[in-house]
Amino acid sequence: MHDHQAVLAKLAEGTAFMLRGSAAKELWGIGGGLEERMSKCTGGEANGLIRLLESKRASQTQSCKVKDDVFGGTFTLDEWLKTPRERRPTTDKYSSGEQLPKLLHVRADQPNFPALKRMLQMPTWFEEANWIWERPTSSDPSRPKLPNERQAFLQLVHARQYTEGHVDNNGTDTIIKVLAGLVLTACWSQSLEPCALGADGRLEDRKIDGEGCDDGGGRVSVMDWKAFKSLPSARLFLVRKGDVVFLPAGTFHYVYTVETKVAVAVDFMNGLGWQRREAAVARDRRIDPKAKEGIGPLPELFRHGVLHIERPRVQKAVDEGQQPSPGRRAELQAILDWGVKLDKETPAHGTAKGPPWPTRDPDVRKALNLIYGYVNPWKDA
Question: What is the C-alpha to C-alpha distance for residues 228 and 95, in angstroms, rounded to an integer?
Answer without folding.
Answer: 19
